[in-house]
């Protein structure tokens, strides 16, 4: 089970580095992608905040367990990312957009959170 959790953590980390990095470091490209789907009410500061939290969560999925310092932070990072994805699902549904990708990421993050929390209880 540990190997499966590591694989899912790595996939999640890569997904959130990609998404968060685009929001933080390439906002204009991100905005152009959003505007192809219609008018977006997501401001630059909110997008950068979300991107920063996604990047922090991605680091938190891998770094604590890799360096074996405060490995319990991995479970909390996964829980935080699951919360962000739950909010993203609501956002997508409100704007009549497909919530499939946030749902998949939510399920993966929840799986990692439960798997890692069960290790520490």
Question: Keywords for this structure?
Answer:
121 residues, mainly alpha, 0% strand, elongated
Q: Would you mind describing this structure in some detail?
A:
The chain is mainly alpha-helical. The chain has one domain. Helix content is 83%, strand content 0%. The chain has five helices and no strands. Helix 1 packs across helix 2 and helix 3 packs antiparallel against helix 4 (73-94). It is elongated and about 45 Å long.
Helical coverage, percent range: over 70%
Distance between the termini: 16 Å
Mean pLDDT: 92
Largest sheet: none
Number of DSSP-assigned strands = 0
Total of domains: 1
Task: List the secondary-structure elements in sequence, H or E.
Answer: HHHHH
Determine the number of helices (DSSP H or I, runs of at least 4 residues): 5
**SS-based class:** mainly alpha
State the low-pLDDT regions, or none. none
Oligomer category: single chain
Evaluate the radius of gyration.
15 Å
Proportion of β residues? under 5%
